[in-house]
Amino acid sequence: MTLRYAVGIDLGTSNSALAYADLLEGDPQLHLFDVPQLVDASLTQGRKLLPSHLYLPSPHEGLGEAVVGMFARDRGAQVPGRHVASAKSWLCHPAVDRTAPILPWGAPPDVPRLSPVAASARILRHLRDAWDRAHADAPLAEQDVIVTVPASFDEGARALTLRAAEEAGLPEILLLEEPQAAFYDWTRVHRGQLGPELADIHLVLVVDVGGGTTDLTLIRTEVRDEAPPLLERIAVGDHLLLGGDNMDIALARTAEKRIGQRLNAAQFGALVQASRAAKELLLGEGAPERTSVAVAGAGSRLIGGTLTAELGRDEVRALLLDGFFPRVSPTDAPARAARAIGLAELGLPYAADPAITRHAAAFLQRHARTAAELRVDAVLFNGGALTPPLLAGRLTEVLSSWSPCAACATTSRIWRLRAGQRPMRSSAAASDCASAAAAPARTTSAWETAARPSAWFRGERRKGSNRRSTATSHWCSGARSGSACSRRPDSVPSAPAIWWRWRKSSPSCRRCRPSFPAKGPLRCG
Questions:
Q1: How far apart are CA 216 and CA 237, in angstroms?
Q2: How would residue 435 be classed by pLDDT, with cut points 50, 70 and 90?
Q3: Which of 126, 227, 258, 280 sits in a 20 to 30 Å window from 371, CA-based?
């Protein structure tokens, strides 16, 4: 069968998604696949995002062995003993046997259990089955499939991801690191003038804050006169179980105190869902001054049995900014004391310090020798947790304060620019998978061929296969010979929206040198 589609899957901690491009089109466009899923017990609808949640129903519910998606998330909040969440985080937890049936963690004895590998396979199988029903003539297993993973995944976690894909009926996939997928998207958008756009950028910090994890990566760039730019990943941060979900839990703890009583597991799960909606509302433009969150009280009363609490716009913003994005110095280190409120989750080793800015400072200190004399010239933000401009702006402000102007000691300015349209998504999933679907490794663009020798593009061959487990290590015969690849077009328009923050790599600023050379916006290709 003829290869027709390039498919990217973001297997996310909180949400998963699938994007694809039809390679038979003259100018392939990126599309997000609507994933059919239960939205309540009797209604199935398509959604761009598939919540990475499983619910293991009891026999009398008549829902089969397992449910994946929106209903699984909502029903799991009500019945936490049958709820499997954060399977991706369990997949990289070295302190447990990730192939043993341990999830749901702490479930009652009568509840069936799944291993982290099996739970991840269930999510991938749901995506495969949905795709196959919509594309009977082009099964997913026979297409060009890339799955994104955190850059901080160790070899064990990557191997287990491949095993989960194989159990899901996808034996021939390639893995692509999520920060790399984000950077691919930016380079793809600017592929026509990549050299000029990178002329004054030598070191890029990729900050990917999703629902459950934070990923930090340093990329060194080098523009050459008669060759495409050289791109090299030189540092990867630790795997931090810290993201938007932790913010939701922190808000839920605040609301629980305001309610004035200790909630049971089902009530607290519902409160977390309500707090997530309140967070998105109060961080948005034109947010109201206050909003309420509510959960059902204990017992069977319908009247007067609802527990409510109010959350104020200013207090929510202060809690998230000061708790997760505080203003810190570049020499600050994350706290290693008892875990802060909102971060404890039975079984998973969440980061002890919720301050993402402190983790970023520690990351840059730890890799200062690797970066040598280079400083961060640009910051690429990815991830649903950074969608609110308020949070992204605070992180931009803190990063700017760490690199004062050498001439007058004032704070350098980071230009907050965008590639593509403003993000309208609620998570990183749509962005990562769309980037993977159009990854240059599947097309052989000129800059990719130039960057191929760098450490970024190392991959491992899978046993019994000529394909590699890392997408950027897979080359067609045209790429090996340096010629164009005739199998896949090299023109894929921009679909995902990745935020790009850039600052001029100049030793001085507007204040001390009025003739500051403005580069102008990084426009879409």
A1: 5
A2: low
A3: 227
Tell me how many degrees the CA angle 212-111-266 measures, rounded to the nearest 5.
55
516 vs 360 pLDDT, higher one:
360
Domain ranges of the chain: 11-172, 244-324
Q: How far is CA 98 from CA 93, 114, 344, in A?
A: 7, 10, 20
Q: Which CATH number fits domain 244-324: 2.60.34.10, 3.90.640.10, 3.30.300.30, 3.20.20.300?
A: 3.90.640.10
Phi, psi of 130, rounded to the nearest 5 degrees: -65, -45
pLDDT, average across residues 113-119: 96
Mean pLDDT of 312-333: 95
Q: What is the pTM of this model?
A: 0.76
173 CB-near residues (< 8 Å, 6+ apart) = 9, 145, 146, 147, 162, 165
Instruction: Name the fold adopted by 11-172.
Output: Nucleotidyltransferase; domain 5 (3.30.420)
Pick from 432, 428, 419, 433: nearest CA to 5? 433
Backbone angles phi, psi at 353, to 5 degrees: -105, 125
